[in-house]
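Posting this for the archive.
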Amino acid sequence: MVSRLAISWAMIGCLSVIGYLSIFGSNFIDVFAQEAEQLIIRRVAVWDLFYQGMVAAFVVGALVQGTLVYIYWRFRESNPKNRVRTQKKEA
């Protein structure tokens, strides 16, 4: 029997491949599918791929940085929700 962890990692892998191909796949097809009327300059196509990759990296970096800022802010020592609660003395 396959564990749930293996299934979840397989799903994450498949989704990442599909996402990668949806972003970069169409550009590779355009470079190699040149017709007589359509001229694609490979240098321009390569720079286009580079800029698309940089935009994707910037978005991922912004998400990671935002998550880290949230975690640091939420779990800081001075946050009142994170203080140790003391038991009240019963009279």
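The mean pLDDT is 76. Helices lie at 4-32, 42-74.
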